[in-house]
Amino acid sequence: MRYSVIIPVYNRPDEVDELLYSLTTQTFEDFEVIIVEDGSSIPCKEVCDRYADRLNVSYYSKPNSGPGQTRNYGAERSQGDYLIILDSDVILPEGYFASIEEELQTSPSDAFGGPDRAHESFTAIQKAINYSMTSFFTTGGIRGGKKKMDKFYPRSFNMGIRREVYQTLGGFSKMRFGEDIDFSIRIFKGGYSCRLFPGAWVYHKRRTDLRKFFKQVHNSGIARINLYKKYPDSLKMVHLLPGIFTLGVVLLTILFGVGLLGGVCALVWMQTAAHRSVTGEAILLMCSLWTMLIALLPLLFYSLLVCVDAGIRNRSFRIGLLSVGASFVQLIGYGAGFWRAWWKRCVLGKDEFEAFRHNFYK
């Protein structure tokens, strides 16, 4: 067996159906599929059974333990030379495995990963979220873009690894979030080769609304500090940017509020001082307006940049506008999680379990 596809699932039978169907369209067919239900209340066994005559698919169900341990469970029951780790909310183009095979035949690699795209069927908000998670203007291109500010670390939505390497490293850790980055860090520290396969891309749905998206990226920010505590050299400048952006937005918001308050005060004083000179109040009003403008200009410029870029990429002005909101949610959500974890882990000195019991260890 050349490849074993490991898919952890939690309450997503409809998405599993789409993923399994996309696997039936592959031009390269030497692979097995292992579905592991991670304590779901809405199982997908019936969905898997429908594909039994078209795919070499195995279905397992186990108590909930998080995605990392669920992947390990599936890996222990796999037979392929390479393990392909996918999230249940992805769809594969028909040339996915053929692209991986071509890359490996040209230049073997111990581990690899691919980028993601938005499918035409995705909603406008899903396309906006996809933009915010892959754009150079939000993530620095570290999730598989052509331009990137850090080396490529495979993510669990689209990751491949040689079986022997997986077993040597002991698979995924018990981290409930950020476990895929932890695994990628250990791949590099082990001295194994790892690279991006640009042609092995997937359609990735991610979250379906901004509230869920905020929670996801907030946990990613928390996970980044948890990873820093395990691997101090893993924290790069690119990882600080969302935190810096968040502080900048907070400071600009405060500056705007000060300008607004000053303007309101100036107008009130001008109304109550009609019988005398209002030169001082007029100067205060002008200064307040300039303060508000200075606070708004950086945010407006960034919003315009994102709107135009996302609008052109998606050929939709609406998606461009939604991408502005998604980008702010992505950066501020991550930044807020980053600073929250920094305070609890680095300043207060709490361990991962005590600091984030409710986030990771429900």
Automatic annotation (TrEMBL):
Coiled coil: none
Keywords: Membrane, Transferase, Transmembrane, Transmembrane helix
Top-rank taxon: Bacteria
Glycosyltransferase 2-like domain ranges (all copies): 4-169
Single annotated GO MF: transferase activity
Membrane-spanning residues: 244-270, 282-307, 319-342
Name listed for the protein in its UniProt record: Glycosyltransferase
Species of origin: Bacteroides reticulotermitis JCM 10512
Taxonomic placement: Bacteria, Pseudomonadati, Bacteroidota, Bacteroidia, Bacteroidales
